[in-house]
């Protein structure tokens, strides 16, 4: 029997958002409640930033001439992925942390760090350093998933994002990997079918034994 791991964040008021900014919180509003004395139609409305919770970035996020979200095909987001245990890292993930992992060309790699241990936004979250990004480009990975809300902190010129995007490496942020052991899984990343923009919220699943 196989097991399905939902590695997505739950979208709800009060969830972790970038910088703990109140204006980045999702908003749920009831448009039509059930009448107290009879059945009716219940409808709600959601206001949601595109980088809320688990989401897929498109190159336009950091590159003025970058591709938009609909250019990323589902075939690029479904298939084998490696969860790597980087819980010993205490600041940034660099080349020295990645070299022992035996990553190979074409890998999808998901970073399991101490970020997955908390449900709050931490300013000192574990991120991918520029030298780590350069190493992953040398290896030739296809995509990277991180359990932080961003793959890098607010660094000048955002070198990690821009290096990866310019080398057509996909970036998924906001994964939840606390209950997932290191290993190889079948991965499904399903972003909302949007167009002309720089990101999309996504449901993310791993399937393993």
What does this structure look like?
With 209 residues, the protein is mainly β. The chain has a single domain (3-9, 50-208), classed as Putative cyclase (Glucose Oxidase, domain 1), CATH 3.50.30.50. The chain is built from three helices and twelve strands. The chain has helices spanning 95-98, 130-139, 159-166, and strands spanning 3-6, 27-32, 43-47, 55-57, 78-85, 92-93, 108-112, 127-128, 143-146, 170-173, 183-191, 199-208. The strands form three sheets. Strands 4-10-9-7-5-11-12 form a seven-stranded mixed β-barrel. Helix 2 (130-139) packs parallel to helix 3 (159-166). The radius of gyration is 18 Å and the shape is globular. The chain starts with a strand and ends with a strand. 37% of the residues are buried. The mean pLDDT is 96. Catalyzes the hydrolysis of N-formyl-L-kynurenine to L-kynurenine, the second step in the kynurenine pathway of tryptophan degradation. Homodimer. Keywords: Hydrolase, Metal-binding, Tryptophan catabolism, Zinc. Its cofactor is Zn(2+). It catalyses: N-formyl-L-kynurenine + H2O = L-kynurenine + formate + H(+).
């Amino acid at each position: 029997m196989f097991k399905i791991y939902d590695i997505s964040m739950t979208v709800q008021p009060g969830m972790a958002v970038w910088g703990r900014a109140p204006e980045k919180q999702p908003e749920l509003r009831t448009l039509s409640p059930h009448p107290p004395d009879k059945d009716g139609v219940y409808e709600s409305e959601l206001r949601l930033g595109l980088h809320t919770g688990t989401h897929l970035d498109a190159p336009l996020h950091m590159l003025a001439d970058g591709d938009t979200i609909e250019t990323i095909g589902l075939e690029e987001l479904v298939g084998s992925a490696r969860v790597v245990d980087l819980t010993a890292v205490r600041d940034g993930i660099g080349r020295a942390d990645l070299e022992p992992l035996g990553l190979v060309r074409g890998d999808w790699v998901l970073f399991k760090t101490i970020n997955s241990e908390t449900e709050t936004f931490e300013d000192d979250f574990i991120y991918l350093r520029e030298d780590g990004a350069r190493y992953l480009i040398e290896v030739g990975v296809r995509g990277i998933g991180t359990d932080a809300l961003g793959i890098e902190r607010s660094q000048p010129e955002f070198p990690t994002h821009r290096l990866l995007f310019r080398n057509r490496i996909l970036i998924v942020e906001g994964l939840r990997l606390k209950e997932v052991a290191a290993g190889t899984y079948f991965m499904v990343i399903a972003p909302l079918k949007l167009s002309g923009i720089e990101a999309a919220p996504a449901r993310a699943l791993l399937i393993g034994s």
